[in-house]
From TrEMBL:
<dbReference type="GO" id="GO:0006950">
    <property type="term" value="P:response to stress"/>
</dbReference>
<protein>
    <recommendedName>
        <fullName>Derlin</fullName>
    </recommendedName>
</protein>
<dbReference type="GO" id="GO:0005789">
    <property type="term" value="C:endoplasmic reticulum membrane"/>
</dbReference>
<comment type="function">
    <text>Functional component of endoplasmic reticulum-associated degradation (ERAD) for misfolded lumenal proteins. May act by forming a channel that allows the retrotranslocation of misfolded proteins into the cytosol where they are ubiquitinated and degraded by the proteasome.</text>
</comment>
<feature type="transmembrane region" description="Helical">
    <location>
        <begin position="104"/>
        <end position="120"/>
    </location>
</feature>
<keyword id="KW-0256">Endoplasmic reticulum</keyword>
<feature type="transmembrane region" description="Helical">
    <location>
        <begin position="50"/>
        <end position="83"/>
    </location>
</feature>
<keyword id="KW-0812">Transmembrane</keyword>
<keyword id="KW-1133">Transmembrane helix</keyword>
<dbReference type="Pfam" id="PF04511">
    <property type="entry name" value="DER1"/>
</dbReference>
<comment type="similarity">
    <text>Belongs to the derlin family.</text>
</comment>
<dbReference type="InterPro" id="IPR007599">
    <property type="entry name" value="DER1"/>
</dbReference>
<feature type="transmembrane region" description="Helical">
    <location>
        <begin position="7"/>
        <end position="30"/>
    </location>
</feature>
<keyword id="KW-0472">Membrane</keyword>
Length: 121
């Protein structure tokens, strides 16, 4: 059943309690993925695809070890983490005008996902 790691990456259970979290995570995926494509990986789409493939393989292996069934949020967090590490000193704004360095953004998103109802794993 080779399709299971692929479907686990693109599936997110949308319901009354998780719909907002899903939309926010889709926004983060689009925003930071496009920033990576036009920034650090500009003109090198194969390198960007290789990075996504490598992250996906690592997430699937970790998901097997930790018995994680949904892999979409870890993939989004990996893209966000790579962008944040490449832009460590950039000041970013988060909700309600809070501003901090980009290197702290993955930790803020992790806390936000936990507060909204997601998992911290």
């Amino acid at each position: 059943q080779i399709w299971r790691p692929i479907t686990a990456t693109f599936f997110f259970p949308v319901g009354p309690g998780t719909g907002f979290l899903y939309l926010v995570n889709l926004y983060f995926l689009y925003q930071y993925s496009s920033r990576l494509e036009t920034g650090a990986f500009d003109g090198r789409p194969a390198d960007y695809m290789f990075m996504l493939l490598f992250n996906w393989i690592c997430i699937v292996i970790t998901g097997l070890v930790m018995d994680m069934q949904l892999l979409m949020i870890p993939l989004i967090m990996s893209v966000l983490y790579v962008w944040a590490q490449l832009n460590r000193d950039m000041i970013v704004s988060f909700w309600f005008g809070t501003r901090f360095k980009a290197c702290y953004l993955p930790w803020v998103i992790l806390g936000f996902n936990y507060i909204v109802g997601g998992s911290y794993v």
